[in-house]
């Protein structure tokens, strides 16, 4: 997968060189290209923002640098894995970023992220971009960050770990909270590792019972308990038949 990010803070995305995403890049599974938006400004101050039409607080990102930056990225289509990327614009007013959307994005050969600072990007940039490629405005949660770069880190990590070959064990994300399947919409329950006793606390005996059916049922019950405690809103979305199917399969 190819990922382009146009930003005034490419250094904010340095964590993409680290850990899971960094390793995916090193293995050639991910090809990340960071672009400095100011490279497409032509005044001495490299200005990327201006006051909003209609007044109001804050500044708006100017259309000209964004237009040229997107033109330049789209020109890469010749050499990229797809003719055009899918563009993702992080904004608190976007559609929610969910595991389903992460799964959908992980299927794309090419993503282009356009994180904004200030009050956002002049709307015409997104309207014009939408005539050339698919554009989604996406929010990572109901809070306001200082800019979209951290949201890009969140989305790239959630997508990258789904790419084939990125996680050591392909099963690792099968039981993720929010993963599709029997455990869909159930939060993952607690996990334990060795030693079996630590500071007088023992692991739940079932986990060392060797009874895989009973362990799976216990995990499901813990997941239900945690979901009702932390996310009661998800309980209604659980498919009881799927949960029972898992039980019968054991
Ligand atoms: N930019 C600022 N806040 C954001 C959020 N919650 N999600 C995505 N992008 C943002």
Automatic annotation (TrEMBL):
It catalyses: guanosine(37) in tRNA + S-adenosyl-L-methionine = N(1)-methylguanosine(37) in tRNA + S-adenosyl-L-homocysteine + H(+). The keyword Ubl conjugation does not apply. It is an enzyme of class 2 (transferase). One of its GO terms (molecular function) is tRNA (guanine(37)-N1)-methyltransferase activity. Residues 1-236 form the tRNA methyltransferase TRMD/TRM10-type domain. Keywords: Cytoplasm, Methyltransferase, S-adenosyl-L-methionine, Transferase, tRNA processing. S-adenosyl-L-methionine binds at residues 140-145. GO terms for biological process: tRNA N1-guanine methylation. Pfam families: tRNA_m1G_MT. It comes from the Bacteria. Its EC number is 2.1.1.228. The keyword Disulfide bond does not apply. It is found in: Cytoplasm. Specifically methylates guanosine-37 in various tRNAs. Belongs to the RNA methyltransferase TrmD family. This is tRNA (guanine-N(1)-)-methyltransferase. It comes from Embleya hyalina. The lineage of its organism: Bacteria, Bacillati, Actinomycetota, Actinomycetes, Kitasatosporales.
């Amino acid at each position: 997968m190819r990922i382009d990010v146009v930003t005034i803070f490419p250094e904010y995305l340095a964590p993409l060189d680290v850990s899971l995403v960094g390793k995916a890049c090193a293995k050639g599974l991910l090809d990340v290209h960071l672009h400095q938006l100011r490279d497409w400004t032509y005044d001495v101050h490299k200005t990327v923002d201006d006051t909003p039409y209609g007044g109001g607080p804050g500044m708006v990102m100017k259309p000209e640098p964004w237009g040229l930056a997107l033109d330049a990225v789209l020109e890469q289509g010749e050499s990229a894995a797809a003719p055009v990327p899918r563009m993702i614009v992080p904004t608190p007013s976007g559609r929610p970023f969910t595991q389903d959307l992460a799964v959908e994005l992980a299927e794309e050969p090419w993503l282009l992220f356009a994180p904004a600072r200030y009050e956002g990007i002049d709307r015409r940039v997104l309207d014009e971009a939408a005539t050339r490629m698919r554009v989604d405005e996406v929010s990572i949660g109901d809070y306001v960050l200082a800019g979209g770069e951290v949201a890009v880190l969140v989305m790239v990590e959630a997508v990258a770990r789904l790419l084939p070959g990125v996680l050591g064990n392909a099963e690792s994300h099968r039981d993720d909270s929010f993963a599709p399947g029997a455990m869909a919409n159930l939060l993952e329950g607690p996990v334990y590792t060795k030693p079996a006793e630590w500071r007088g606390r023992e692991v739940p005996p079932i986990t060392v019972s060797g009874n895989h059916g009973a362990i799976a049922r216990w995990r499901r019950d813990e997941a239900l308990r945690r979901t009702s405690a932390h996310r009661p809103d998800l309980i209604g979305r659980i498919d009881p038949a799927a949960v029972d199917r898992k039980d019968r399969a054991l």
